Amino acid sequence: MTDKKKSLHVKSGDRVIITAGKDKGKTGNIKKAMPSEGKVIVEGANMITRATKANPAYNIQGGLMKIEAPLDSSKVMIVCPSCEKPTRVAHKVIDGKKVRVCKKCGEQLDV
Question: What is the reported pTM?
C-alpha cells in the first residue's frame, strides 16, 4: 500500500462556516489544519471541557478548561472574503501559479 499525500480544501487562517453538528451556522477562522487526519480546529467552535492537573513546573493551573476539539473538514465550507458567502473551492492557474478561486464570484481566495 502506498502512502498518498492527503490534502484539504481549507488552510490555516481561512474563514469558514460550519455546515453540520451542534455548532451549525457558526463562523470562525481555522487555527490548525490536520491533513493526515482530515480534521481542522476552528476558533470558538466544537468546544469541549477538559480536566487538567496542576503542574507548577510549567506554571499550569489545574481545573476544568474549555478547548476547541478537532472537527471533520467535510463539515466546514470556506467563506469567500469578497462575496461573503459559503462556497466551494475551484483551482485556476494565474501567472503560472495554482491558486484557489471562489466558485460563486470567481475571486481569488489566496491573497
Answer: 0.83
